[in-house]
Amino acid sequence: MRSLPLFIFSHSALTSASIDLSWHAPNASDINSLNSAINGTGVYGFIYDSSNTPDGEYGVYNWCNMPHVRVTEYKRASEEYELQYVEVIHRHHKRTPYAANSFPVESYPWDCNHEGLFYYGQPSTGHKSAHTYWTQFTSPINPFIPSGFLGTCQFPQITSEGLDDSWQHGKDLYGVYHNLLRFLPDDTEGKVTFRVTQNVITSEVAGMVVNGMFGSSDDYPLLIQAAGIDSLEPTYTCAQSSTLFSAIQSGTNWTTHLSAASPLYSTLDGISGVSPTDAGFHASFDHYYDNLSARQCHSKPLPCELVNGIDSSTCITQTEADEVYRLGNYEYSYIYRDDSRSLAASVASYGVWIGELTSHIRGFLNGSSNVIYRHNVAHDGSLSRLLSVLQLDVMVWPGMGSEVVFELYKKTNANTRFPTPTDAMELGSKSGYYIRVLWKGQVLRSSNPDLGVMDMLPLDTLLAYFDGLVGMRAGCPPFERLSCLDIKGFGRTGAVAALH
Q1: Are the CB atoms for 133 and 119 separated by under 8 Å?
Q2: Residue 147: which region, alpha, beta or left (left: phi > 0; alpha: psi -120 to 50)?
Q3: pLDDT confidence of 495, banded at 50, 70, 90?
Q4: What is the 3 state secondary structure string of 136-165?
Q5: Which terminus in the chain has less CB density within 10 A, N or C?
Q6: What residues form DSSP beta bridges with 409?
């Protein structure tokens, strides 16, 4: 039986008194340089055409299948640290594009005949259900034809290749946390949970991850929050966050890059048949990015202009696709890191999940929870907000399978206790607990000087940072009540200043 901390900490005390809660700019790089986005070549050595990254290059950004924790590259903590608790959050794996991101008429179909999307209900006791799955078909009688891709896929759905990537992701995690570190049990034993969002593609991934980790094809519960309030995706309403993100994506700094990319837009619109007045395709490069990258990740050709329903020789070139990808990464860096309002916007819309994370850690420490491993399957918007809150030093658009891991360690032979508010003011960890945060399988680097290289960061420091931003257990609705934030030590400085 593990020993429990000695003290429970005061809810009313200020945990953020000595922690820097302000926004810090990311590193200047080609990714957040508009000149590089518009006039550069290639995509910084990133991979967009395969899930496979050569072993010698693993760690390189691969949009189709991002680097994650695996035995080959994993750096074990020194022997003085003992792993106590792990929480993983990652984006789903590669999929078909969203229907809204398809062109009005696509020149070829997209079929998903090598997998099944299973949908059925079954009582916990009594009769069993057949394992029914969807097979999409086209009726010769139905005169209505959907826009975009035709074929047997859903748009979106995790493809068979994405399902294989999901399984391998689970196997790789198990290889580290069970086989290498002997931390995970042989089966879940009530100590492991998996959580998904209301978007079914996360459940499609989770089932494969569970089997990749534990080899189980038995029934398994996936935790899920109600539609409209889910903190993982997130879907809860936060007017302040929406206002801030809208302002970030409507100012002069934002419209400048859209104007600079107008020649590219003109070419893409002419080939795709997308109207230049289509707001969805022209508010950002999100739609074109999703459409083109999904094709290339699945070895499908870049699209050509249709003339009388037939492919012409006028096609989107790799050079043009690369510019779309550069601009997409530029946009994500700007939205979530480069604009000084990004921290406030992300804390407001992801603060509840952050509060859940800290409550999980505290629950483990005070013995109220036996769970030692939590696994969250989420979305690019989830990871982007989390990386924004952590103030990642070089921001990118989180690719398929992008992963952040929180590892909680106890220093052996140390007198451990529950972190107290004043611990964050001291050098080192007074509680005896430390956190390591991994991004793309390696230690995350934050632009915030109090977080820095997040390798054995005193737990007291990270809790003080999170509590200062979102409150204990997210008890102060993030950026909803300025008086609450003022009490927590924000005053009119740091993140909250972005609201004024």
Answers
A1: yes
A2: beta
A3: very low
A4: CCCCCCCCCCCCECCCCCCCCCECHHHHHH
A5: N
A6: 83, 434
Cα–Cα dist 435/390, whole Å: 13
Rounded to 5, what percent of the chain is helix, strand, coil? Answer: 35, 15, 50
The Cα diameter of the chain in Å comes to 76
Cβ-Cβ contacts under 8 Å for 75 (sequence gap 6 or more): 442, 443
Q: Say how far residue 383 (Cα) sits from the centre of its chain.
A: 2
* pLDDT 10s digits, 2-30: 544 433 333 323 344 589 999 999 999 99
Q: Is the dihedral of CA 157, 160, 161, 166 positive or negative?
A: positive
Rounded to 5°, the CA angle 227-232-236 comes to: 50
Token pair recorded at residue 406 = 């929180």
Alpha helices (H) along 157-249: 160-174, 200-214, 239-248
Whether the CA torsion 440, 346, 64, 40 is positive or negative: it is: negative
Sequence-ordered strand ranges (E) for 269-401 = 304-307, 310-315, 373-378
Residue 308 region by backbone torsions, left for phi larger than 0, else alpha for psi between -120 and 50, else beta:
left
Measured CA angle at 487 (ends 482, 491), to 5 deg? 65
